[in-house]
Amino acid sequence: xxxxxxxxxxxxxxxxxxxxxxxxxxxxxxxxxxxxxxxxxxxxxxxxxxxxxxxxxxxxxxxxxxxxxxxxxxxxxxxxxxxxxxxxxxxxxxxxxxxxxxxxxxxxxxxxxxxxxxxxxxxxxxxxxxxxxxxxxxxxxxxxxxxxxxxxxxxxxxxxxxxxxxxxxxxxxxxxxxxxxxxxxxxxxxxxxxxxxxxxxxxxxxxxxxxxxxxxxxxxxxxxxxxxxxxxxxxxxxxxxxxxxxxxxxxxxxxxxxxxxxxxxxxxxxxxxxxxxxxxxxxxxxxxxxxxxxxxxxxxxxxxxxxxxxxxxxxxxxxxxxxxxxxxxxxxxxxxxxxxxxxxxxxxxxxxxxxxxxxxxxxxxxxxxxxxxxxxxxxxxxxxxxxxxxxxxxxxxxxxxxxxxxxxxxxxxxxxxxxxxxxxxxx
Length: 427
Fold this sequence. Notes:
Layout lengths: L3 H11 L6 E4 L7 E2 L3 E2 L9 E2 L3 E4 L1 H4 L8 E9 L13 E5 L11 E4 L28 E4 L9 E2 L10 E3 L7 H9 L4 E5 L3 E7 L3 E2 L10 E2 L2 H11 L3 E8 L3 H11 L5 E5 L9 H6 L11 E6 L2 E2 L3 E7 L4 E6 L3 H19 L9 E6 L5 E2 L5 E9 L2 E4 L8 H5 L3 E5 L5 E2 L4 E6 L2
Parallel strand pairs: 6-7, 13-16, 13-17, 14-15, 17-21, 19-24, 22-25
Antiparallel strand pairs: 1-12, 2-12, 3-11, 4-10, 5-7, 5-8, 6-9, 18-20, 20-21, 22-28, 23-27, 24-25, 24-26, 26-28
Protein name: Molybdopterin molybdotransferase MoeA
């Protein structure tokens, strides 16, 4: 038997990060940056207002109060995006909007709430729309409070300065990073792409959801669960409908799918039964130009998930992981072996789910087969973990209630309640 670690090491030693490509920003979401990104222009690129209000000179509003307001001449509007801002001279003010460039001569911004808004009727709560009150950009405004120099002004470069490093190589691009790249004018970026993963299930008994079941048939859940898991891991995943138990059909299906696959995942047909089609179809298939290639089927010292297959197929030596068909076995196998392979293809430094220790909360001791590393479904919260469902590899409903895997080592046959155990966090 192979150990879990040896099988994982074999997978990760074979899978290599995908070559970098240039992608549009939204297509690069979830991908890892290959190069440092340097800021080509400061953010903000000019001094601008952080408030809707009036741009003023500090001396003109010094000592202003509601009893003795500063009365200033309004010389016009400064709106966001305006390219020819007006100038503010002594005794003057310009009505300014949030994000608009600070006009020449102005030293601070007083919020509109500190003024009468040009109405002459005391403090106001806000400005009227220009289309409704165009006269607001002229006349006079009363200011009821003084302002310090640079008050309510966003300074040029106060976010980042030209030449600064905006993002480091190795950064995974999420929404904030995509926003920053757009803000500094980058429309494309060089990343390691999300791998394309093709998932197919095998078994003549499998029927697609929404179809009518005949006696002896079940719905194909594995391909849906594993495709969703591949997308959750960061891949672009394609689900192929279940393939019947026919070796030639399976080989032809895999060959057809290789054109869009950086990684292939099959589920079912890897054990020792007479109808284990994946093992039959791929056990003796080698790469076209690489002696010793193909898929190796092996037994692992683990429960669930003892039968596994791994190798490469096709002219491009596309990695293929063949997982068992029982739903829990296939999902646990995905988390342990396929997810790390996907993350490795993406070039990510940390490819594994986080692990913690937790106190076992159970009514009785857990038992585990000697010589096997057991992975039990669990619900983890607040430093403790509770087993969910039994150890059966067919218990899909129990799997849906779990957010963790409880790990029982190979040399442990019983775990008492209250024992600290290793827990793999799934969400």
